[in-house]
Specification:
Blueprint lengths: L1 H10 L5 E2 L2 E2 L13 H4 L8 E5 L1 H4 L9 H11 L8 E4 L5 H10 L8 E4 L3 H5 L4 H18 L7 E4 L8 H4 L3 H22 L2 E3 L2 H5 L17 H20 L4
Parallel strand pairs: 3-4, 3-5, 5-6, 6-7
Antiparallel strand pairs: 1-2
Helix pairs in contact: 4-11, 5-7, 7-9
């Protein structure tokens, strides 16, 4: 049903908008996340907070295919006792919207692992790189605070390039790629300045230009297969973070 609606809107030339601005994604609510008490049922297990947008909530894939869920499964397979991921993410969110949602969410004071992936909607809505830098920097500091102020326990994930998808190919993919590179240069620099970890998955996302299996059925978002590729790159950093916290 969602795919049919998506195609009708694309063919009709109608943008999916919020606040009079287009989103590069279908603007639909994701299922409400479990509260902190439910997520952190085992006090002896490692905790993980995933902050982001559609790429973190896993728009158009099954729940078990979301990258935070796949990451937890991969960490468990390595013998690490993990609680389910706590996810604060929604399709369409920009940096300021994520920041606002974090403030209103019921979260634990700290987590053993935190990931941050945000910015594609800033780019799509035409927001400035200067604004992105300021708001990303603030979000990164928030992520560090949730990592018990241990900057080395935070992983920033680069923004994927949606210009190679069927949706993006009709919207000036060369310019999209240029913009994504600019925004990623900013989040990489801010991550390095703060001393956090950085994982580049943008190159993987661009492989979707020649591999349809890496794109979800909506023609825009990553498939579970692509998310698995991301997890393979994120996993070594996550293992190192959690192994350093073993008692």
């Amino acid at each position: 049903m969602n795919r049919i609606l998506f195609l009708l809107l694309v063919f009709a030339g109608i943008g999916l908008a919020c606040n009079d601005k287009e989103y590069p994604v279908e603007v639909i609510d994701h299922p409400k996340q479990k509260n902190t008490a439910e997520e952190l049922a085992d006090p002896n297990a490692f905790s993980y907070l995933a902050l982001g947008d559609s790429y973190t909530i896993g728009e158009s894939v099954e729940e078990h295919q979301r990258f935070p869920v796949q990451l937890v499964a991969a960490l468990r397979s390595k013998g690490l006792n993990m609680n389910a991921a706590t996810i604060v993410a929604r399709t369409g969110w920009t940096t300021d919207e994520l920041a606002s949602a974090i403030k209103s969410a019921t979260l634990a004071k700290s987590y053993n692992l935190v990931t941050l992936l945000i910015g594609v909607n800033n780019q799509y809505r035409g927001r400035s790189s200067d604004e992105y830098r300021t708001e990303f920097r603030n979000l990164l500091q928030t992520a560090i605070q949730f990592a018990n102020n241990k900057v080395q326990n935070v992983i920033v994930v680069s923004i994927p390039d949606y210009g190679v998808t069927p949706f993006g190919k009709s919207r000036d993919p060369e310019n999209i790629a240029k913009d994504i590179d600019t925004f990623n240069a900013i989040n990489r620099q801010e991550t390095q300045n703060a001393g956090a970890r950085y994982v580049n998955i943008t190159d993987i996302s661009r492989e979707a230009a020649d591999d349809d299996s890496l794109v979800a059925s909506d023609g825009l978002h990553p498939s579970g297969k692509m998310y698995a590729r991301w997890v393979k790159k994120i996993l070594p950093e996550a293992i190192e973070i959690l192994e350093s916290q073993r008692q």
